[in-house]
Each structure stands twice: as structure tokens, then as C-alpha cells.
Amino acid sequence: MGRWSQRLAVAFLDFVDVADGERVLDVGCGTGHLAFAVAGRSPGSEIRAVDFAPAYIEYANRNNQSPRVHFTVGDACALEFPSQSFDRVLSLLVLHFVPQPEKAIAEMCRVAKPGGVVGAAVWDARGGFVANRLFFDTAATLDPKANARRARNYTRPMTRPGELPAAWRAAGFDNVVETELCIRMEFSCFSDYWTPYAGRDGPGAEYVMTLGAAERSKLEDAVKAAYLDGEVDGPRSFAALAWAVKGTAPY
């Protein structure tokens, strides 16, 4: 997912309009793509970034070449920062994985300065995530357990139309604005597409790891047929939509 979050970060930062010289918090930073994008765009800004997974923070720190970016392990629902301490508080592709997203949103509001911009983006998993649906829709035709996982994946909180702005208004933000962000997910061949599902990270890979060798091979063949669409193996490009929201912290 890293290469796609890196691409989505560009469109997201255009939307939230980060200014130079600000103090920025990246909540749920993963391997650091959004934080690095902020640093590249705003050379005078100080960026703090937190994630619940130590492995992601270790990776981000190994790749961090900016003294203005600081990565630490942290809980989105209990941020270890003083209230009203950031000009912008941002979250990219995280809130739909937080068990209690309203707590994370309240924390984002708490640490933002009055009038500071707080923004987030999540995939439109059900209606706008073509590459991911190709995998799960195919898997669901083969296995009832995959159908249950698909249902859970596409009904996560904050991924349906209107959920993000409703949550922002409920948290007390002013000047709430919602938009859609679109990127293209481009793959050089089926192997390039399938490799993440053969790993350990993400809902699809987690499902594949539950399968025996024969089941896994059957699924891979079926997904490959869906990827090829009757043509020879090679590049494919799929649209990916994300919901995005921003608002200002109340005075």
C-alpha cells in the first residue's frame, strides 16, 4: 500500500493546503509517506508522526533523512501531545482501521490549535477501490469465509458516503468540507499485483494466510484470470477513490 499512499498523499496535501512553517502532526503515519510529503512541500515545517505499530515506526526512522520529521510509537486514541499544539493535524488511510474512530477524531481535535486545520482521508472501499475489489470479489465466489471478510472490509467505519463529514461535525469542527480524491493504481504485470497478497500485511494478505496450498493456488489462478480479462499478462491501471474531509478546530 505504501506506493499508493505516497501518491494519494500528494492529492491530500493539495486539499488540506499545508502552509510552510507550520507545526504538523501525522496521525497513523505508517511507514511515513505523508510526513515525508509534508517535509518536501513545506521546508520550514516541523512534523511529528505517530503510529501504533512499532515496525512501521522503525522503518520510517530508518528512512528518515530530515531533522524536522520525528517518528514515535503512539495511540491515535490517546495522543501524547499537549492540547492546542499543532497548526495542522492529518490522517491518511488510518481512521477506518481504528476500532473507535470517534476517539481518534476527538484527540485530533484536542491537539489542534484553535482555527487549526484537521483533515483525513480513507479509501472509498466499497465503491471506488477497483484493484482491491478485484481480489475480494473473486475470493468471495470461491469461499464463504472470504465473503465474510469482504463484508467486513467494505463496511468499516468512515468509508461510506457522508461518514467523514458527519463525524467531523459531531466532533465540533467548523468549516467542514468533504471531497473525493482520485489516483491510479498501476501494475506492471499480474505478479506485481499479486505480490502484496502473498505477504503478511493488509486484509487480503491476512485472508490468504488462512488458506492451504491448494486453496491458495486456486485463488491465485482465479484472481489472475480476473486481472487478465482475456488479454495477455502485462500492465493494468485501476482507478482508486478516497473520501477526504477537513475542518477547523473551534476557538
Written description of the protein model:
- The protein is an alpha/beta fold and 251 residues long.
- The protein has two domains: 2-124 and 159-186 and 240-248, 3-Layer(aba) Sandwich (Rossmann fold), CATH 3.40.50; 130-154 and 189-234.
- The chain contains ten helices and seven strands.
- It has helices at 2-16, 33-41, 54-62, 101-111, 130-142, 144-153, 163-170, 190-194, 203-208, 213-228, and strands spanning 23-27, 46-51, 69-73, 86-92, 112-123, 174-187, 236-248.
- It has a seven-stranded mixed β-sheet.
- α2 links the parallel β1 and β2 (46-51).
- α1 crosses α2 (33-41), α5 packs antiparallel against α6 and α5 packs across α10 (213-228).
- It starts with a helix and ends with a strand.
- The model has no long low-confidence stretch (mean pLDDT 95).
| Gross geometry | globular
- Helical content class: 40-55%
CATH class designation of the largest domain: Alpha Beta
Number of strands: 7
What structural class should be given to the helix and strand makeup? alpha/beta
What composes the largest sheet? 7 strands, mixed
Strand order of the largest sheet: 3-2-1-4-5-7-6
Looking at how many chains there are and whether they match, the oligomeric state comes to single chain
> What name does CATH use for the topology of the largest domain?
Rossmann fold
pLDDT averaged residue by residue: 95
Discrete helix count: 10
Spell the H/E element sequence.
Answer: HEHEHEEHEHHHEHHHE
Tell me the strand percentage band: 15-25%
State the CATH architecture of the largest domain: 3-Layer(aba) Sandwich
End-to-end separation: 36 Å
The CATH homology group name of the largest domain = Vaccinia Virus protein VP39
Radius of gyration: 19 Å
What number of domains?
A: 2
Indicate the low-confidence ranges by residue numbers.
none
